[in-house]
Automatic annotation (TrEMBL):
Residues 178-358 form the Phosphodiester glycosidase domain. It comes from the Bacteria. This is Exopolysaccharide biosynthesis protein. Signal peptide: none annotated. The lineage of its organism: Bacteria, Bacillati, Bacillota, Bacilli, Bacillales. PANTHER family: N-ACETYLGLUCOSAMINE-1-PHOSPHODIESTER ALPHA-N-ACETYLGLUCOSAMINIDASE. Keywords: Membrane, Transmembrane, Transmembrane helix. It holds the Pfam family NAGPA. The chain crosses the membrane at residues 12-29.
Length: 359
């Protein structure tokens, strides 16, 4: 506990207040006074408040109008978006319908010509081609039909025997060597100088093999152009055939159908021989190809088909153009690695040219 005397307390406060006492004495000596200003509460400045409130109100109204405009714009965008999506769906539906309608005539036409052939015995489907094999039975002969839709420039080609001018090989050997899924014998040939040479004008990969020879007598040229369309007929000059842009083709006799009409068969070919194994190359109006290969036990005219019968058969099957290829022992049809027909020689004949198909 702290004990202090009165004298000590007075001394303490005197020392504590000494600075303030000294200041008061100095002010009194200097005759100065201190005036405390009167405090005033400022009145509201109504002139200043008025414009500020007006500006604020206008800003609020502007924001409200902007919000309304934004909402209206958003609604418009939403309506336009829905309209665009609806239109897009409608256009897509129209496009699908148009696509279906575009292929419908082709589908109907293909179904019609296929109905004339019956049910395919075998089929090969790929991105390059569709090949269907049918059995043909007539009153006087039997044989096979190969219907081919080419989808690629690489789906079909002409092959020289052993890939050389004057070479020869069977259709099966050519198909095996090239890895083809199907093959048919092609043009006629002539033997000489130790080789087997294509008859008359022959085109391979757009080039003339052995040169161009104007067609004479009953000869014709048949092949495919650069659009995979069948071309054929008689050509008196190279320039005339060049205008057709042939990619490959061969020659033989005679023409059976042209533009859907039967052409007169020269008397010579009506009886020499009368009946025989036959091979015919034809086309449909949608550019599908049709090969007809008819069997025969021999070439003396006692079996097989006549050219007139082949003409009638091709016409009834709906072909537009039809050309008689080499027949007799040359008639050969290969499908999926197998010999389909029954060669009249008892075995396949080595040939100068063969048509091959690839998947």
């Amino acid at each position: 506990m702290i004990n202090m005397t009165v004298q000590q307390v007075n001394r303490f406060f005197l020392l504590a207040l000494a600075p303030f006492i000294g200041m008061m004495l100095w002010l009194l000596a200097a005759d100065m006074s201190i005036t405390i200003p009167q405090l005033h509460t400022p009145k509201p400045n109504t002139a200043a408040v008025g414009p500020s409130a007006q500006t604020t109100g206008e800003a609020v109204k502007g924001l409200q109008q902007a919000a309304k405009t934004a909402a209206a714009t958003a609604n418009t965008i939403n309506r336009q978006t829905r309209l665009y999506e609806q239109t897009n769906r409608s256009m897509s539906a129209i496009a699908r319908t148009a696509a279906v309608q575009a292929v419908r005539p082709e589908f109907i036409y293909n179904r019609r010509i296929t109905a004339k052939l019956g049910a395919p015995a075998r089929s090969i489907q790929s991105d390059k081609l569709t090949a269907q094999l049918y059995v043909v039975r007539a009153q006087n002969f039997s044989g096979y039909a190969l219907k081919v839709r080419l989808k690629s420039d690489k789906a079909m080609k002409l092959a020289l025997g052993k890939d050389k001018f004057g070479g020869a090989e069977t259709t099966l050997a050519a198909a095996s060597r090239y890895g083809a899924v199907a093959g048919v014998n092609a043009g006629g040939f002539a033997d000489g100088r130790g080789g087997r040479y294509p008859l008359s004008t022959t085109v391979l990969d757009g080039r003339y093999v052995g040169g161009f020879e104007p067609t004479y007598a009953d000869l014709f040229f048949v092949g495919l152009n650069d659009d995979r369309k069948l071309i054929g007929g008689q050509y008196s000059s190279k320039s005339e055939l060049d205008r057709e842009n042939p990619q490959f083709g061969v020659s033989f006799v005679p023409v059976l159908l042209k533009n859907g009409r039967m052409t007169p068969i020269p008397e010579k070919w009506q009886t020499s021989p009368y009946r025989a194994p036959r091979t015919v190359m034809a086309n449909y109006k949608d550019d599908q190809l049709l090969f007809l290969v008819v069997d025969g036990r021999n070439e003396n005219g006692s079996s097989g088909a006549t050219l007139a019968e082949m003409q009638i058969l091709a016409s009834r099957l709906g072909a537009v153009d039809a050309y008689n290829l080499d027949g007799g022992g040359s008639s050969s049809l290969i499908f999926d690695g197998r010999v389909v027909n029954h060669p009249s020689d008892g075995r396949l004949r080595p040939l100068a040219t063969n048509f091959l198909f690839f998947k």
